[in-house]
């Protein structure tokens, strides 16, 4: 059964039910006589009086109290238990029989059946074979257990027994997160790498397993000494298995090493484990097609987005004529700002109607999986179009006519292709035509940013001007302008009234002295899957979120070790650890006109 209880063991035979009911009728008939009738009448009268005084009247509050385990036999922590032991768990109330399946776990994994008592509040675990000698066994009651009112258990219950003289003491705990929020009922699997050096959660049975509680937290207790690798996943198919490409999975930032006394060795279990989960598409990234837009540009359409930090390496692309064999030089490469799965190459002039073959090597997807080398080529025909289209300004932040913009806003400009911004190409001014200076910097090949030199005034209107003649692409073509002013693009916005908002401030700390990379901090409003605000720090230090709407928030942070500007989720197999991340343990309250301060975000090693 692989640890799955059998519902057939929970049923009372129909014949037994009939025999019990018949016996009750016979016994009652023998007792009824004249004296008994009088006594029963008095008893009924007394019960009526009592019912008028006590008890929950119809239509009262619904029972929302979750069930819990009140007793175990043998008691938790028992040692020298018999190899044929049948542990019993007693609950605070009746349990739905159908909620037992898939929510009772035994580790190390052993086949078993679960039998429910006729009262429904006791469960007996019967192992299908004798337990091993001198071994700690852990019975975990998952949060899927429900009472008859469908109330779930608040948290998992862990019950340890040993067939030997002692109970193992190793412990690992942590938090699971999905879409910025703590993820309830997540499965967490642990593998002892001594016996399973390259575990694949899609096909390798775990040595230990547990389930996160309603707040996303989990704990493994009573682990034996060894080196462990943990994975977390949300079981979308409810089959208690990890389905690659369907279930969001969390890859650890490190392995955990536990000594004989249950403590971490060499700091490899310092602090809780944090899991940020996402769906990993199992199909390898590959080239779908290639298409030219003019004699100097080629677009490569991939099956998924590549790692942005690898795209600009022109050595990843080789182009040659199919018949002539003559190579075509690639002078630059960048991601299409309108589609992260499309790469644009700038090439030497193509020969009209010549058929070329493109080969892409060395790229990886966002899970650090390499491109499929069996599907990494595409053919295209050289273009005769001489003049490429003019560059366009795709997006400006803040958007035109935006309101309640932060006083510390950073302006951003997204272009259709790499461009050169000449001196004075971007102007920021207030309603008095007073210009506000600022330094321009490039975030990537097509996105520029400008942070004003001074804090903007509250409740004030501002205008952004982009002078088209001072913005040119690599072919010396000026920016395409639209609207009433053919040489200028204009955008307006107004800043916030700070009295209508609150703020958050604190400090980010990294316990790893060798930690490197920028720090990304995201602020999520409770129950929102998209961040309300994000900031980036060059390294550990102070942070601040201004102009935050009143409400309850969650803060999470990560260290961008590879410098690609985003969180890397890692990969299960071949194993690539996720970047280190953390979630603040408390929900933070932001109040109108107040600053929530002295927040510490501490990243574990």
How is this structure best described in words?
This protein is mostly beta strands and 605 residues long. The chain has 5 domains: 145 residues, Sandwich (Immunoglobulin-like), CATH 2.60.40.1220; 115 residues, Immunoglobulins (Immunoglobulin-like), CATH 2.60.40.10; 95 residues, Immunoglobulin-like, CATH 2.60.40; 104 residues, Immunoglobulin-like, CATH 2.60.40.3710; 105 residues, Immunoglobulin-like. 7% of the residues lie in helices and 38% in strands. The chain contains 3 helices and 41 strands. Strands 10, 11, 13, 14 and 15 form a 5-stranded antiparallel beta sheet that branches. Strands 35, 36, 38, 39 and 40 form a 5-stranded antiparallel beta sheet that branches. It has a 4-stranded antiparallel beta sheet with strand order 1-2-5-4, with no helix packed on it. β35 and β36 form a beta hairpin. The N terminus is likely disordered.
Characteristic key phrases:
605 residues; mainly beta; Immunoglobulin-like; five-stranded antiparallel sheet; 3 helices; 41 strands
């Amino acid at each position: 059964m692989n640890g799955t209880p059998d519902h057939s063991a929970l049923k009372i035979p129909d014949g037994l039910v009939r025999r019990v009911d018949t016996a009750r009728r016979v016994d009652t008939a023998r007792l009824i006589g004249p004296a008994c009738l009088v006594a029963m009448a008095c008893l009924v009268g007394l019960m009526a009086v009592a019912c008028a005084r006590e008890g929950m009247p119809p239509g009262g509050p619904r029972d929302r109290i979750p069930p819990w385990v009140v007793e175990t036999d043998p008691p938790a922590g028992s040692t020298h238990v018999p190899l044929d032991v049948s542990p019993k768990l007693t609950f605070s109330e009746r349990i739905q029989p159908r909620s037992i399946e898939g929510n009772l776990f035994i580790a190390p994994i052993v086949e078993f059946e679960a039998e429910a008592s006729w009262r429904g509040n006791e469960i007996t675990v019967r192992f299908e074979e004798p337990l091993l000698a001198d071994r700690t066994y852990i019975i975990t009651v998952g949060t899927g257990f429900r009472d008859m009112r469908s109330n779930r258990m608040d948290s998992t219950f862990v019950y340890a027994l040993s067939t030997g003289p002692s109970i193992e003491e190793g412990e690992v705990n942590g938090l699971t997160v999905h879409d910025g929020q703590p993820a309830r009922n997540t499965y967490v699997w642990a593998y002892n790498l001594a016996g399973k050096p390259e575990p694949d959660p899609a096909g390798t049975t775990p040595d230990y397993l547990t389930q996160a509680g309603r707040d996303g937290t989990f704990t493994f207790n009573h682990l034996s000494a060894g080196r462990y690798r943990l994975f977390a996943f949300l079981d979308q198919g409810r089959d208690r298995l990890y389905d690659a490409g369907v279930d969001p999975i969390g890859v650890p930032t490190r392995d955990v090493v536990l000594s004989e006394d249950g403590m971490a060795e060499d700091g490899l279990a310092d602090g809780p484990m944090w899991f940020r989960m996402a769906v990993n598409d199992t199909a390898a990234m590959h080239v779908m097609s290639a298409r030219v837009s003019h004699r100097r540009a080629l677009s490569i359409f991939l099956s998924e987005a590549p790692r942005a930090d690898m795209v600009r390496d022109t050595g990843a692309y080789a182009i040659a004529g199919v018949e002539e064999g003559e190579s075509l030089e690639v002078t630059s490469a960048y991601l299409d700002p309108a589609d992260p799965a499309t790469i644009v190459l700038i090439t030497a002039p193509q020969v009209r109607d010549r058929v070329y073959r493109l080969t892409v090597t060395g790229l990886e997807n966002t899970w650090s999986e390499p491109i499929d080398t069996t599907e990494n080529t595409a053919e295209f025909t050289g273009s005769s179009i001489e003049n490429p289209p003019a560059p366009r300004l795709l997006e400006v932040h803040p958007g035109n006519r935006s309101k309640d913009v932060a006083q510390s806003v950073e302006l951003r400009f997204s272009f259709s292709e790499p461009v050169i911004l000449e001196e004075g190409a971007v102007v920021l001014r207030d309603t008095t035509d007073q210009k506000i200076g600022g330094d321009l910097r490039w975030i990537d090949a097509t996105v520029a940013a400008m942070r004003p030199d001074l804090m903007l005034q509250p409740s004030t209107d501002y205008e952004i001007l982009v002078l088209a003649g001072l913005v040119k692409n690599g072919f010396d073509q000026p920016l395409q302008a639209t609207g009433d002013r053919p040489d200028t693009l204009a955008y307006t916005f107004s800043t916030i009234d700070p009295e209508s908002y609150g703020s958050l401030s604190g400090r980010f700390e990294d316990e790893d002295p060798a930690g490197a990379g920028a720090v990304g901090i995201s602020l999520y409003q409770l129950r929102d899957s998209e961040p309300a605000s994000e900031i980036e720090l060059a390294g550990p230090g102070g942070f601040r979120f201004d102009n935050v709407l009143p409400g309850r928030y969650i803060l999470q942070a990560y260290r961008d070790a590879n410098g690609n500007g985003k969180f890397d989720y890692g990969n299960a197999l071949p194993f690539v650890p996720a970047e280190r991340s953390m979630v603040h343990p408390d929900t933070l309250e932001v109040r109108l006109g107040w600053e929530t301060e002295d927040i510490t975000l501490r990243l574990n090693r």
